[in-house]
Amino acid sequence: MTTTHRGDAPTQSRPRPGLRDFYENPAVPVASGDARSLRQARMLAAALGPARGTPATVLDIGCGDGSAALTAAPLLSGHRVIGVDWSQDALRRARTHMSDVVRGELTDGGMPLADGCADAVLFSEVIEHLVDPDAALDELRRVLRPGGHLMLSTPNLAAWYNRALLLAGVQPVFSEVSLRGIHGRPGSEVVGHLRLYTARALREFLAASGFEVVTMAGAPFHGVPRPLRALDRAACLLPSASSILLVHARKPGG
């Protein structure tokens, strides 16, 4: 994850054989990074409030190796977090960090979960890997109860350095033109990004998919060179220019 975050292993149904093989490769990074995980967990903890009586059910969809859930666990104490992924290898690794894991896919039949079963969904750096993000958000909306929370994160196409790179005619960071190598931009690690969003596009897409955007925040990217990391943290104050977009959205009702 030196040049881009795959975050958690993508939960996507029946990708082309080459793409599925790519994501099943244990060498492909699945760790999402503590800075993003902590900021997202704080947003979710604030939305859920302290656990009282029946714990909230949180689905970590695209949980990957479970490292993000491990980072978030102290902030979500008392709530039940269930990891969901289609990658058997990812779920095997996730079991070392999570007590509950489920194999499931987002499209073509959906996940083996009941309608309205979840109080919240963590969707951490998954959407940029999906062939069909529309069907994926339909499935997330299905499993959320009315009023349920969606915490989504994804790399920002319009990150402050990408604006400068495009002006210079350089392919933006986070974008990939091949699954075999990086071409035309800084970095060397391929992680399988298929779609990228700006803050405006992500807001509009979520609204069109039936979600109400509550708030948007930014998170830093640990692949930024060390001399520029202070600037990257400062860019989080303006989410539309930050490295990573963090969105809190809700399913209407409740």
TrEMBL record:
Parts of the chain that traverse the membrane: none
Question: Which CDD domains does this entry report, sorted A to Z?
Answer: AdoMet_MTases
Which InterPro entries does the UniProt entry name for this protein? SAM-dependent_MTases_sf
Q: Name one GO molecular function term.
A: methyltransferase activity
Q: Which UniProt keywords apply?
A: Methyltransferase, Transferase
Instruction: State a single Pfam family of this protein.
Output: Methyltransf_23
Region annotation (Disordered) ranges: 1-22
Which GO annotations describe the biological process of this protein? Answer: methylation
| Highest taxon of the lineage | Bacteria
Enumerate the PANTHER family for this protein. Answer: TRANS-ACONITATE 2-METHYLTRANSFERASE-RELATED
Identification of the protein by name: Methyltransferase domain-containing protein
